[in-house]
């Protein structure tokens, strides 16, 4: 079973930047399309960025042009570079395999990392 550990969150002012990391155990990481999800207080978890095992990225419209997803397969690590942050980006951010909204997660959720953007 793959274990996922997110880090890099924190408190930042609107317009600021953060870089999140996702460390995964197990060699299967490099074979899996991965994604960054976020869950704001009182809202459902949403998928904001995906990256295929080959490095092709896609983004939700709400973050397109501001966030950049990347991965380092030999290090079993994925990143999310977040720029021009907005208060509405405030959420707990998680990583997991990229799946359709109605599909159960492939791996157990990690603890997530909290991003708070102040106005």
Protein architecture, described:
It is built from no helices and ten strands. With 119 residues, it is an all-beta fold. It has strands at residues 4-7, 10-13, 18-24, 34-39, 46-51, 57-59, 67-72, 77-82, 91-97, 113-118. The strands form two sheets. Strands 2-10-9-4-5-6 form a six-stranded mixed β-sheet, with no helix packed on it. The N and C termini lie far apart (40 Å).
In short:
By secondary structure, the protein is an all-beta fold. The chain has no helices and ten strands.
Structural classification: mainly beta
> Could you tell me the number of beta strands?
10
Give the amount of beta strand, in percent.
over 45%
Order of helices and strands: EEEEEEEEEE
Tally of contiguous helical segments: 0
The rough form would be described as: globular
Please list the strands of the largest sheet in the order they lie side by side.
Answer: 2-10-9-4-5-6
């Amino acid at each position: 079973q793959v274990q996922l550990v997110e880090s890099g969150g924190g408190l930042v002012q609107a317009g600021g930047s953060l870089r999140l990391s996702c460390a995964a155990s197990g060699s299967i990481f490099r074979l899996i399309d991965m994604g960054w999800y976020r869950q704001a207080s009182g809202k459902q978890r949403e998928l904001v960025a995906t990256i295929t095992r080959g490095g092709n990225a896609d983004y939700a419209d709400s973050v397109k042009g501001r966030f950049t997803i990347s991965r380092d397969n030999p290090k079993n690590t994925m990143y999310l570079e977040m720029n021009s942050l907005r208060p509405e980006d405030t959420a707990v951010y998680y990583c997991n395999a990229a799946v359709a909204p109605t599909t159960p997660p492939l791996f157990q959720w990690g603890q997530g990392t909290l991003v708070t953007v102040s106005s």
